Every structure is written in C-alpha cells, then in structure tokens.
Amino acid sequence: KSANPQWREQFDFHYFSDRKDMLDIEVWRKDNKKHEELLGTCHVNITALPAKQTNCLELPLEKHPGSLLMLIAVAPCTGVSISDLCVCPLGDPSERQQISQRYCIKNSFRDIKDIGFLQVKVLKAVDLMAADFSGKSDPFCVLELGNDMLQTHTVYKNLNPEWNKVFTFPIKDIHDVLEVTVFDEDGDKPPDFLGKVAIPLLSV
User: Domain containing 194 — which CATH number?
Assistant: First the structure.
C-alpha cells in the first residue's frame, strides 16, 4: 500500500569483467497471491560504471511513471569461485594448513566479517523427473547462500546428470542456509522446477 516503497535490500551478483552484461530490473505490484502487475523496467550497463566505488543511480522506469533509487558498486570478486573437480581449490594440503591457521581461535577477532567460507562439490543427480515430452530433462543446478547465487552448466537430455563442479562461497552469516535447486532448462521460457534441498550451515 505504498507508492514510495523503501526496501533497503542488498544483493550480490558475481560479475566477470570479460562479459558485457546489462543489469535488468523489474518492479512488480502484487494484489494477492494470484494477481501480479508489471509496474516498469529499467536497465543498467554494468561495463559503463566506474569500478571500486559506490554509484548512486536514479533510474526512470521505462514506459511507466516513477523511478528507482539504487546504489551499485562494482568491486573485485573475492572468495567466490567455480572450478572443475580435478582442480579443487582446497586440494593442496599446504593451502588447507594456511586456512586452518587463518581461522584458528586466536585469529577469530582479527576480522569480524571474515567468518570463513563454504566449499560445495556438486557431483551428480539421480533419477530426476522427466520434464520434456521425450521423457528426458535438461537439468542444471543452482546454489544459493544468503544473497550469493552460483549455478552449474546444463546437461541436456539426461535424468542422471553429472556436473562435477566445485563452488566456493564466502560466509557472511553462520545462520545462513545453503539452498540447492535443480531446474530443467526450457529455452526462452522460465525453467521448470525439478527439486530442492536446504542445508543449514550450522548442520555442516
């Protein structure tokens, strides 16, 4: 019930400078659970923004009244990685020893925001639901931790896909929950949901 809403939400997207990406933003109005109406869209060219500083942008909504006020910062990506299983970042014993030293009890108050990081190896899925008429699916896997999101590649025409990828996330809140969702890629249409599992960090 507001024409001037304040959300004050922060989202982290992993952007790689070799890509020329646009940030697409949509504003929606929700009457109830079933009815939604698009109030406008706007786009930000990430490559045109100055790096290593917070950019305050007032973005008019296209073809609709109103505007969005946003703070966008393009900063070096630290602590986040995607790699193949054969080059796992924690595979080196000396690297593991450095990490153990970094997060030992005597260093726990050196940097309050540096809680640690989570490494997830996504190996495979078994006996997925068939989402296509052919009796197969085109599955990919999405991992979310807080506002961080990474995803695997798509394995086409397969109900038992093998991804063999290693994902590393910085941990910002020890009470966060790792959510792993499997989707079926469906061309230009939104992906179909194939299943989900949620793992609280405190249970690891």
Answer: 2.60.40.150
Across the strands, what pairs with 116? 171
pLDDT value for 202:
93
Inside any domain, residue 7: no
Mean pLDDT for the stretch of residues 69-87: 77
- The structure's pTM equals 0.63
Q: How confident is the model at residue 15 (pLDDT cuts 50, 70, 90)?
A: low
The C-alpha atoms of residue 118 and residue 178 are separated, in whole angstroms, by 9
* pLDDT value of position 30: 83
pLDDT at position 88 is 67
Strand order in the sheet with 162-171: 81-84, 162-171, 116-124
Beta strand pairing call for 148-151 and 67-73:
unpaired
Domain identity same for 86 and 182: yes
Tokens of 12: 């982290």
